[in-house]
Amino acid sequence: MATQNSRSAARFMLAPAVVLLLGWMLVPLTMTLWFSFRKYLPLRGGDMGWVGFDNYVRFVSSSSFWPSIQTTLIIVGSVLIITVILGILLALLLDQPMWGQGVVRILVIAPFFVMPTVSALVWKNMFMDPVNGLFAHLWKFFGLTPIEWLSQASLPSLVMIVSWQWLPFATLILLTAIQSLNSEQLEAAEMDGAAVVSRFFHIILPHLARAITIVVLIQTIFLLSVFAEIFVTTGGAFGSKTLSYLIFQRVLESQNIGLGSAGGIYAVILANIIAIMLMRVVGKNLDA
Fold first, then answer.
1. Residues 191-246: pLDDT tens digits?
2. Cα separation, 165 vs 160, whole angstroms
3. Nearest of 218, 236, 219 to residue 227 by alpha carbon
C-alpha cells in the first residue's frame, strides 16, 4: 500500500506534466473564446473591438451552419457503423489460423499509418477519377457509365475514404479483444451444440462490448474534426462541407478570425454534447 509520502512524491513528479497538458489545452481554448467575442479581421483593419455575441449569432444564422452539422453527423455515424461492423468481421477472420497470418495482419493495419492527405489523394486519383480511375474502368467493363464520385456522390465517397483509414484501428482493437476471450467458453458452447451464429451473439459479441465502446468513443472524437480528406477531394463543395471545414472557410478564406473562433466554440460544444451522449449510452460498458 502506498504511503502518504509516496503519494505526495508521485503528485509532485506528475505536476509538471499535468500543468503542461492543461496549458496546452486551455491556452488555445482561452484565446479562441477571447477572439470569438471580438471583430478581428487581420487583413482588413485588424482588431476592431468587442462585439459580444454577434459572431455567434452570425455563425449560427448562416445558411451553411445547419447543413454542415448534418453533414458532420452523417459522416461520423456512417463511418462508425462501417468500421465497427467490418472491424468485427475482419477481426474474426484474422483470428483464424492461416498461412502468412502476421503479414496479413500488417497489411490490414497499414492504412491507419497513411497520412489523411495522402490517402485522400490516392482515392481521388487512382480509384475515383471518372476517366482513369479503377472504379471508372470497372464500370466500363460492365457496360455502365462511370460515376463522377466526388461530385455526384460526394458524401458516400468521403465516408468510403475515411472508413478505409479508420477500419484498421477498429480491427486492431477488436482483434485484441477477441484474442483475450477464453477459448474454453467457445469450446463448451460448441460441445453443447450451439450454432456459430448463437456463439457469436451470446458469447463473442457481449465480450466485445467494451472494445466496441472504446472504438466508438475514440473514433468519434477524431471524426468530428475530419478536414484533410474534404480539403483534398471536394473542397467543401457538393454538400460535403462539415463544421470543421466551415470554420476553416470563415478563418482563412474570409479572413474573419472572430467569426471562425465562434464556430470553434460551437464545435467544442457539439463534441462535448456527443461525448456525453455516448458515455451515457455505451460508456456503462467500460465499468461492466
1. 777 777 787 887 888 888 888 888 988 898 889 888 888 999 988 888 888 988 98
2. 9
3. 236
For residues 191-227, one letter each, b for 16 or more C-beta atoms within 10 angstroms of the residue's C-beta and e for the rest, the string is eeeeeeeebeeebbeebbebbbbbbbbebbeebbebb
Domain of 213, CATH number, reads 1.10.3720.10
Contact 79, 163 (CB under 8 A): yes
Asked whether residue 106 is domain-assigned, the answer is yes
Does residue 54 belong to any structural domain of this protein?
Answer: no
Residue 121 falls inside a structural domain? yes
Q: Give the DSSP H or E segment for 74.
A: helix 65-94
How far lies 28's CA from each of 23, 31, 53, in Å? 8, 5, 19
In the numeric block, which cell numbers belong to residue 11?
Answer: 503528485
As for how many domains the chain has, the answer is 1
Q: How is residue 53 annotated by DSSP? A: T
Q: Which residue has the cell 457509365?
A: 145
Q: What is the pLDDT of residues 21-75, one digit of tens each?
A: 877 878 888 888 888 888 888 776 677 778 888 888 888 888 888 999 999 999 9
Of 17, 16, 19, which is closest to residue 27 (Cα–Cα)? 19
Question: Is residue 96, in this structure, part of any structural domain at all?
Answer: yes
DSSP E strand stretches across 58-203: none
Q: What is the pLDDT of residue 1?
A: 47
CA distances from 77 to 25, 50, 159, 217, 284 (A): 27, 38, 9, 12, 20
- pLDDT score at 248: 87
3-state helix, strand, coil in the chain (%, to 5): 75, 5, 20
- 87: domain range? 65-240
Q: Say yes or no to pLDDT of 94 above 80.
A: yes
> Residue 182 corresponds to which amino acid?
N
Place of cell 453533414: 71
pTM: 0.84
